[in-house]
Specification:
It contains 5 helices and 8 strands. By secondary structure, it is of the alpha/beta class. The strands form 2 sheets. The protein has a 6-stranded mixed β-sheet with strand order 6-5-2-3-4-7, sandwiched between helices. A two-stranded antiparallel ribbon has the order 1-8.
Length: about 190
């Protein structure tokens, strides 16, 4: 319903049952273009953790480099979900010989339907975000999600719903080491 509330901090798991990067791409870097958003998510049992995010307006080559950079920063996160829209297919094509785990994701339904599909996970309290004092971008993330579908941009929502859907429905289990700064709370 868009309301915010305080919740207890919990320790970040040292290991996750499953991890993924999730990318929402845009066509070009202009004043009015959408943002390119890359997120890193981890799942430990039913709990999902947003571990990192890279959000900026980018050209095609900057988008390719952004996927490289996040993959280098998170080498144990093998699954790299790329929305099969905008320049996502071209990004996959440019990186497929270089990076492992690039997965084209065909969006199912419109943005609202995809958000509704993952809302029970959020409503159940199974999604954890970093503290905004540690990662200031969390404030913009929350603003976009709480004003959806009326927010100016929807890129963080797109990347997030893609990851949450993948983490709840994937048939594969991957054990990945968590971030080295495991003392942070979420």
């Amino acid at each position: 319903d868009g309301s915010l509330f305080e919740c207890n901090q919990i320790p970040l798991p040292a290991r996750f049952d499953q991890t993924c990067q999730s990318w929402d791409m845009a066509f070009k870097d202009t004043k009015d273009s959408a943002f390119v958003v890359g997120q890193v998510w981890g799942r430990k049992q039913a709990k999902k953790f947003l571990l990192d995010q890279d959000r900026r307006k980018r050209t095609f080559s900057e988008s390719v480099q952004g996927v490289r950079n996040l993959s280098s920063k998170w080498p144990n996160v093998l699954a790299k979900l790329v929305e099969d829209k905008a320049n996502g297919p071209a990004i996959i094509d440019a990186l497929k010989a270089e990076l492992d785990g690039l997965i084209a994701i065909e969006p199912q339904g419109d943005k609202s339907a995809r958000t509704m599909a993952v809302s029970p996970t959020i409503e159940a309290g199974d999604v954890y975000l970093p503290h905004p004092m540690v990662h200031p971008w969390v404030d913009d993330f929350l603003q976009e999600w709480t004003s959806f579908p009326n927010s100016a941009y929807k890129d963080q929502v797109d990347a997030g719903t893609q990851a949450l859907d993948y983490l709840k429905s994937s048939k594969f289990e991957f054990a990945a080491v968590g971030e080295t700064e495991s003392s942070r709370s979420y």
